[in-house]
Amino acid sequence: MTSRALRTTLALAGLLLAVTPAWSQQRRGFHERDGAFRIHVGDFRPDGDSEYWNDKERDFTGGLDDLENATFGMDYLLPFNSRFSLMFSGTAYAGDTTQSYRRFVDNRGDRISHDTTLAVASATVGVVLHPFGSNAPVSPYVGAGGGSYFWGLEEDGDFIDFGRRNEVFSANLQDEGVAFGVYYLLGVEAPITRRVSIFGEGRWTQAEDELSDDFEDFGKIDLSGRSFLVGLTWNL
Length: 236
What we know:
The protein is mainly β and about 240 residues long. The protein has helices spanning about 5-25, 50-60; strands spanning about 35-45, 70-80, 85-105, 110-130, 140-160, 165-190, 195-210, 220, 225-235. It has an 8-stranded antiparallel β-barrel.
C-alpha cells in the first residue's frame, strides 16, 4: 500500500468517524458489550533499525519504504468492565522489493539484482482501556501488549562473491524465526449500529531477532514498525 493509498484510507476513515456521532444521536442507549470481535486492514511500515537493514541500505538500492505494505488482522476483546478489556490479536504482513548493488554491475553493464521479501505474523495478548467506556458515542482508547512474532526473510536473485574475484552467482537465501515483541496502540471507536462499530487505530510494534541459517553473522533483524488501521467491531 502506497503512502497515497494510506492517506486516502485514513481520510475516508476520518470522514466516517466524523459523521458517526450524528448517526448515534438518533439512537437511544448503547450496547454494553459482553465481548467483541474486530477485523481490520491497514498499512505497516518497518522501522529497520538494525545492523542487517543498515547494511542493506548502504550497499543496495531500494529501501524500507519499498517494504511498506498492507497488514490484516483480527482481535477478540474480553471485557473486565466497560473500560478495561483483555485483547487477543493475530496479524499478518508481507512486503517485498527488488534491490541492486549500488556500485557494481555485471560484465554486460547490467544491474546485479535480487528480490527481498519480509513476512511477519503475530499472536499477542494485551490490555485495552476505554477511558469513557466502550459504549460511549465516540470512544477513544489506548492499549499495550506483547506476544510472539513469527517472521520469514528471503533474498532470491543474483549476488557477488567478493572472496572469489567478484564472481556473480545466483542463490535463494532464507531464514525464519520467532521473536518476542511488544506493542502500543492508540485509537478511536464509534458505533454505526447497536452492535457494529467502526474504528481507526495506530499501533507501534517493537521486536527483533538474531539472524541465522543463510544469514549467519548478519547480526540482528529489526521487526519493529508502525501500523495504521481501520476496521469494524462486532459487539457480542
